[in-house]
Amino acid sequence: MGRKIVITSGKGGVGKTTLTASLGIALAEAGKKTVLIDADIGLNNLDVVLSIENKVVYDILDVISGKCRLKQALIQDVDNPSLYVLPSAKLSDSPLLNAASFRNVADALALNFDFVIIDCPAGIDNGFHRAVSAADEAIVVTTPHISAVRDADKVLSLLSGYNLMSVGIVVNRVRGDMVSRGEMMSAGDIVRAVRCEPVGVVPEDDYITVYSSAGRVPFDTVSGRAFKILASNVINGTRNIFDCSARPRLSAKIRRFLGV
Amino acid sequence: MKKTAKIAAERLKNVILADKVAHPERLNDLLKSDITSLLEEYFELYPQSVKVRLQPSEYGLDILIDATAVRVKDFGNFGE
Ligand SMILES: Nc1ncnc2c1ncn2[C@@H]1O[C@H](COP(=O)(O)OP(=O)(O)O)[C@@H](O)[C@H]1O
Ligand SMILES: [Mg+2]
């Protein structure tokens, strides 16, 4: 039986979808058969982040309503044959999309995959409940900003009402240079404030910004290395934290090449 | 001058602790009624004497319970 992990945050735009995709890639590269469930009906969908949006035929609602079989809706990643995506429904208000049906889908996937990663929508309403109900573990994403951490803390309180085996936090978009100048809270500050175990720290990475519109992020970047460490923490239960203090900027040559 | 990160960390701590006691009425009512019925198993309580207070502390929240009992209930003799 595979592990089912929901990626959640409370606040939108902190990097849930980016983290889901990148963690998925890193897990697949580590040889784990991984499937990503897109439980968010947002702008920056998982399929777009992974550049597979043109391959979407069926989605999770088609699976739940019996229009197609689970296997038919899964999209295999081009670069990583061990990575699959179950696309999100286009309609969010169908009564078929409930916690029980989500859990059934996740359970069915867990029979055939090592990891089922669920990209949770922002907010703490039905969509949150559905996504969290389908998981056994949770990763809460935040950025080093007070408003994001505050929402993460609220989500941590909500999560304590679910029967989860483990809950960890990832601090995303950390700027090592600003932290060392005392201009940005460190991951340590945040972990202390919310009293939650850190599973990863991801630096602010220009590559993510640049590539998010053009296609997927190349793996050998600072954030790529941070995601690799995160994946190994998730797999092995270790708690190695990426050091964000050395932060190479996008080189001028790459900037020119990309026209940015 | 205090570094911005230090100020932010301090503000964050305060905001989070304030959030934790943000809805005290409902939590307090539930807590008070549960604690009252628990204490009533052991004590004859002075009417309306149970008070529950939540207070931010260094490690999270202090839960302060204050109650007055008229007498301890007699459990009889359990023998050895
Ligand atoms: N570590 C990072 N460095 C730079 N940009 C990032 C990073 N993480 C996320 N982003 C950008 O932030 C935006 C929001 O991220 P996204 O994953 O869509 O958030 P969410 O799913 O939580 O709404 C995207 O444009 C994404 O490219
Ligand atoms: Mg998203």
Description:
- The complex is a heterodimer of chains A (260) and B (80).
- Chain A has 260 residues and is an alpha/beta fold.
- Chain A has twelve helices and eight strands.
- In chain A, strands 3-4-2-5-1-6-7-8 form an eight-stranded mixed beta sheet, sandwiched between helices.
- The mean pLDDT of chain A is 90.
- In chain B, the strands form two sheets. Chain B has a two-stranded antiparallel ribbon. Chain B has a two-stranded antiparallel ribbon with strand order 2-3.
- The model of chain B has no long low-confidence stretch (mean pLDDT 85).
- Magnesium ion binds next to helix 1 of chain A.
**pLDDT averaged residue by residue of chain B:** 85
Roughly what fraction of the amino acids of chain A lie in strands? 15-25%
Overall morphology of chain A: globular
Tell me the count of domains of chain A.
Answer: 1
Beta fraction of the residues of chain B?
A: 25-35%
Total E-strand runs of chain A: 8
Summarize the helix and strand pattern of chain A as letters.
EHEHHHEEHEHEHEHHEHHH
The total tally of domains of chain B equals: 1
Low-confidence stretches of chain B: none
Helix count of chain B equals: 2
Distance between the amino and carboxyl termini of chain B:
68 Å
With strands numbered from the N-terminus, the spatial order across the biggest sheet of chain A is 3-4-2-5-1-6-7-8
Mean pLDDT of chain A: 90
Total strand segments of chain B: 4
Order of adjacent strands in the largest pleated sheet of chain B:
1-4
